[in-house]
Specification:
- It comes from Frankia nepalensis.
- This protein is an alpha/beta fold.
- Helix 6 links the parallel strand 4 and strand 5.
- The protein has helices at about 1-15, 20-30, 45-60, 80-85, 100-110, 150-160, 180-195, 200, 205-215, 225-250, 255-265, and strands spanning about 70, 90-95, 115-120, 135-140, 160-175, 215-225, 270-280.
- Strands 3-2-1-4-5-7-6 form a seven-stranded mixed β-sheet, sandwiched between helices.
- The two termini are about 30 Å apart.
- Bound molecules: S-adenosylmethionine.
- S-adenosylmethionine binds near residues 32, 33 and 73.
Length: about 280
């Protein structure tokens, strides 16, 4: 429990920093996930790429119109609104950032989606405010990496899904530490530590599949789609170069975590993968 409290504080600190607030708002209009690029799609056009990524999610959920879905780590709710609009789903978004939830509600109200999207302050480690089997589907869009206790989060997803309910996760995995050179290892450690991502630090390629099976999910597909999001990471690496170099020179790397992550993750592409996990709750 103290470990979970410390984790929540670290996540709040990470997203409350000026760099995070301004970067996500001005570069990505408040959305916080990578885009999907086919050959020839321009890397700098972030919004259409993020909508394409959200469509990848909607297709993998494969749920009927009106199905009830949990967005675990919804941020400002852009993913939820795409699913409500383009896939006619009924989405409940949860997050621990009150300032993101306020904005999510405001945007849904403004776009006439308040009846199909709702946003609740809640930690995904404890979904006790939701009933057993309440949802037809659940998803994480780059959020599970922040978990302090991934087994517990999966157990909660399992509980709130109906039998056969769908779980789709857009998440990173890592290359085992012993296979990384010292520079890649140091960079990866710093990104996970400063970005408050203990689960990314812990889960080697192949581990999440095992955790899902242990939590009584049937894993239907695991897709390494790193190549699809690299154009956006490349753009971030270019944008981050100067702020990161300056922060390092001043000994203030902790103030430029996003810039650091863009540069170092681009440089050490052998240290990680970006995956889509599609699973269903065993009956
Ligand atoms: C990279 S952002 C993604 C946000 C959103 N899915 C999107 O794509 O715009 C990760 C989100 O997970 C949320 N998060 C982290 N830990 C969480 C927890 N324990 N419970 C609920 N949300 C959490 C963060 O607050 C943040 O909004």
């Amino acid at each position: 429990m103290p470990e979970r409290d410390a984790n929540i504080k670290a996540v709040l600190r990470y997203y409350d920093r000026t760099e995070s607030r301004l970067g996500y708002l001005y570069l990505l209009h408040g959305t916080k996930h990578f885009g999907w690029y086919e050959a020839g799609d321009p890397g700098w056009r972030f919004s259409p790429a993020m909508r394409r990524m959200e469509h990848q999610l909607g297709r993998r959920l494969g749920l009927d119109a009106g199905s009830r879905v949990l967005d675990a780590g919804c941020g400002m709710g852009e993913v939820a609104r795409t699913l409500a609009t383009d896939f006619t789903l009924d989405v409940t978004g949860i997050d621990i950032l009150d300032f993101n939830l306020d904005e999510a509600r405001r945007r849904s109200e403004k776009s006439g989606l308040a009846d199909r999207t709702r946003f609740v302050e809640c930690d995904y480690h404890d979904l006790s405010q939701f009933a057993d089997g309440q949802f037809d589907g659940a998803y994480t869009m780059e959020t599970f990496v922040h978990a302090a206790d991934p087994e517990r989060v999966l157990a909660e997803f399992h509980r709130v899904l109906r039998p056969g309910g769908r779980l789709v996760m857009f998440e990173y995995s890592r290359t085992p530490e012993e296979l990384l050179d010292p520079a890649a290892r140091a960079a990866f450690d710093a990104v996970c530590e400063l970005g408050a991502m203990p689960t990314w630090h812990r889960l080697n390629h192949g581990d999440l599949e095992g955790l899902l099976e242990s939590a009584s999910f049937k894993v239907e597909a695991v897709e390494d789609v790193t190549a699809r999001m690299l154009p956006m990471l490349r753009a971030f690496a270019l944008l981050g170069r100067l702020p990161y170099a300056t922060a390092r020179r001043l000994g203030k790397t902790a103030k430029a975590v996003n810039a650091m992550s863009g540069v170092e993750m681009w440089k050490h592409q052998d240290a990680w993968r970006y995956n889509i996990y599609t699973a269903a709750k065993k009956a």
